[in-house]
Write a structure and sequence with these properties.
Blueprint (H helix, E strand, L loop, with lengths): L1 H25 L17 H13 L2 H4 L13 E4 L2 E4 L16 H10 L14 H4 L4 H12 L22 H9 L13 H11 L4 H5 L18 E3 L2 E3 L14 H10 L1 E2 L3 E2 L4 H8 L4 H12 L11 H10 L8 H10 L32 H9 L21 H14 L8 H11 L11
Helix pairs in contact: 2-6, 2-11, 8-12, 10-11, 10-12, 14-16, 15-17, 16-17
The structure holds heme C (3 copies).
One heme C binds next to strand 6, helix 14 and helix 15.
């Protein structure tokens, strides 16, 4: 009995030492507050550059709540451990980052630690932002610090135990955070290196496009950019694992990032629309560099097929009679905007997207097509792509399923199984009155 007590005491002492040591090792200092730098301390050139970089990094996409003021935070990000709220990054001293020195800002962006010395959750993509150069980082700071200061306290994040113990993130960082600038690859041309800097840094493409392991770390190697899921959306693979019927060329990627639409693939909807919105504002040279980097993940031997001939072949023989339900639904609800015949030459941006070429209809997962049909495309990626109405109030689960599977069969694909149930599930999850976005 006595030895058991002793053992427990020893174990307790050990636990205290281990936990104490862990806290000592993970301790980060509080950085002193500073007065908000005067606007004159930055050049206009630096501020303008920072604005473009902020668009590239989607800062406002995450740091603005639906209907909220830009960069004042409060966007809820769902995680299996609870909801994480983004913070106010306007220069308000009390509720934002107005009292943050450049050093404090830089530590948050590169090391994921806030001014108070607290570890930040990796829902904030600092594992990518750590790649940003000093010069770009200073421009971002200059831009943010010269924007209107807005007093607004977003809801505080409180996750379930043990995820509320922020020092635990230090262990995660130890596994997944590779600090510092991206090493240059001298075997590759400068354009490729520039594209890598954009994609791996502010663009944080892999945060969505790479699958994650059991600890929510991004997978690399052959799994890099191999596709993932996000809020019901299927994030397509950017590698040769793509389901796109047309091989992506550098020109296609350029069109997609610049206009939000590639006539040979389709449009950027859902979580990709704001990414393209930010990217479309960048210089042509940068958009081309990004395309060149992404191209290097594709199969170099894949044959480029003529899209028009492909569509003509797919649609040559209608598989359905004119009174088939799916066919009638398409003619009634979709044909006014989407070509059913092979006229991709006349498919102007956002006017008649050719669905026989759409990546999502060829995917193993019906989710993206279903979500677009239920909720439409309310915010186009760029002004040149159109919007699409929502059909959730006009079509039943069964009708949406019939319509999509009719198209699949017309294009020579297997129908998606269990589709009405998937439509019903996604309908519920994205109910405008019940979405997590308005949860608070
Ligand atoms: C994918 C969403 C996302 C994007 C994109 C994003 N952030 Fe954040 N950011 C977050 C979240 C979530 C937090 C809070 C994390 C936490 O509470 O642990 C955060 C925290 C921060 C913080 C710490 C603020 C504080 O008060 O602790 C700073 C600074 C910051 N972000 C700046 C930026 C900048 C600059 C950009 C654009 C280059 C950016 N963020 C883009 C999600 C994002
Ligand atoms: C917030 C998550 C997110 C981020 C960040 C993101 N993507 Fe996407 N991406 C998506 C989703 C979701 C889709 C599917 C869009 C659709 O169906 O309209 C997509 C689609 C694409 C497509 C079209 C693929 C196809 O075959 O149709 C390309 C190309 C692409 N993304 C490239 C990129 C690049 C390059 C970056 C970084 C600059 C990036 N994405 C960042 C979520 C994201
Ligand atoms: C009023 C015009 C209009 C109607 C009607 C319409 N669409 Fe669309 N649809 C569009 C536009 C425009 C886009 C591209 C939007 C963009 O890029 O912002 C689009 C895109 C799509 C996409 C591709 C989404 C992606 O992420 O690549 C699918 C799938 C689609 N529509 C299916 C349908 C179906 C099925 C119907 C009939 C039920 C339909 N649409 C009716 C205008 C329309």
């Amino acid at each position: 009995m006595r030895s058991l007590k002793k053992l427990i005491l020893i174990l307790l002492a050990l636990a205290v030492i281990v936990i104490g040591g862990f806290f000592a090792l993970t301790h980060q200092s509080v950085m002193d507050p500073v007065a908000q730098p005067a606007a004159g301390s930055f050049s206009q050139q630096q501020i303008d550059k920072g604005k473009l970089l902020a668009a590239m990094g989607d800062c406002a996409v995450c740091h603005t709540a639906p209907g909220g003021t830009k960069n004042t935070g409060g966007l809820p990000i769902a995680s299996p451990f609870g909801t994480i709220y983004t913070t106010n990054i306007t220069p308000d001293a009390e509720t934002g980052i107005g009292s943050w020195s450049y050093e404090a800002f830089e530590r948050a962006m590169r090391h994921g630690v806030n001014r108070d010395g607290q570890y930040l959750y990796p829902a904030f993509p600092y594992t990518a932002f750590t790649r940003v150069t000093d010069d770009d980082m200073k421009s971002l700071y200059a831009y943010l610090m010269t924007q209107p200061a807005v007093k607004h306290q977003p809801p505080k994040t409180s996750l379930n135990f043990p995820f509320n113990v922020r020092p635990g993130i230090a262990a995660w960082n130890w596994m997944y955070l590779k600090k510092g600038p991206l090493p240059e690859d001298s075997s590759k041309p400068p354009e490729w290196n520039r594209g890598a800097y954009i994609a791996e840094g502010l663009g944080h493409c892999s945060a969505c496009h790479s699958p994650r392991d059991q600890f929510a770390g991004e997978k690399g190697g052959a799994e890099k950019f191999a596709g993932s899921t996000l809020d019901g959306w299927t994030v397509p693979a950017l590698t040769s694992k793509t389901s796109a019927p047309m091989v992506w060329t550098a020109d296609d990627l350029y069109a997609y990032f610049k206009h939000g639409f590639s006539p040979r693939h389709g449009s950027a909807a859902g979580p990709m629309a704001p990414v393209v919105h930010g990217m479309s504002q960048q210089s042509d040279a940068d958009i081309k560099a990004l395309a060149s980097y992404i191209m290097s993940f594709k199969d170099p031997n894949a044959k480029v097929v003529d899209a028009e001939a492909y569509v003509a072949a797919k649609l040559k023989e209608p598989k359905f009679a004119i009174d088939h339900e799916g066919y009638r639904l398409f003619e009634g609800a979709c044909a006014s905007c989407h070509s059913a015949v092979g006229d991709i030459k006349s498919s102007m941006f956002g006017v008649r997207p050719q669905l026989a070429l759409n990546t999502n209809l060829y995917s193993d997962s019906p989710n993206n097509s279903v979500l677009v049909m239920l909720n439409g495309i309310q915010t186009a990626a760029t002004p040149t792509t159109g919007t699409m109405p929502a059909f959730r109030h006009n079509l039943s689960d069964a009708q949406i399923a019939t319509l999509l599977n009719t198209m699949r069969e017309q294009y020579g694909l297997q129908p998606w199984s269990n589709l009405p149930a998937t439509v019903g599930k996604l309908r519920k999850e994205t109910e405008p009155s019940a979405t997590r976005l308005s949860a608070h």
